[in-house]
What we know:
236 residues, Rossmann fold, CATH 2.40.50.1020
Amino acid sequence: MEANKGYHILIVEDELLIAEHISTILHAAGYINTTIAMSVDKALQAINNKKPSMVLTDIALGHIQTGIDLGALLYEQFKIPFIYITSHSSTEMFSKAKHTRPNAYLVKPFKKEDLLVAIELALFNSELNNKITENNSLLIKDGHAMARIPHNEIMWLEAEGNYTLIYTSGNKKRLIRNVITELQQQLPTNDFLRIHKSYAVNKKYVTELQAAQIVLGDIKLPVGRTYRELLIEQLK
């Protein structure tokens, strides 16, 4: 099979033999660029350094931070497609995992064909979504019509239950019937940063990062504790 050049896959698994087995399957299928991380902390370092195209993660990675914690960041903050590969098949575990919007959920032991199909579909859908946002504007429903808001005019997003307030330059705002995570999925990962469960900001407008808040000119927004360390790295 031809090498899948340009794709870098991160494998997050705390059992080295399993991680190496997955890596071997990927290499045989042409995915020659892989990295292994054995904890959430190591995975976050690899994401910042390697910029992977996709992440395969186990769920049981530790008691403090699990694969589900990582999955939430992959969906909300990094917008990187990811697949859970886990030995947990309980309804309760799946219910928790599905809310992080994984591209697939594979239970060990899995067939290599199922893994490769899941990866191919996830990468295809991710590339399709990226093409949608290449026009540098956010497409929204405005009443009975559709409207576009240029990315560079959006200052920040604020969650309002099942709605989101979009604040734009010139002190304008729009209330959109989409949750904030859905809207952030349509925005460039490198420009729009999640700072809190209720806020995402356009980093071009950020003037200062303080202990518990971020400053956009005259505006101050709260920074969630779990987002602060990552923000420091992204704003460098």
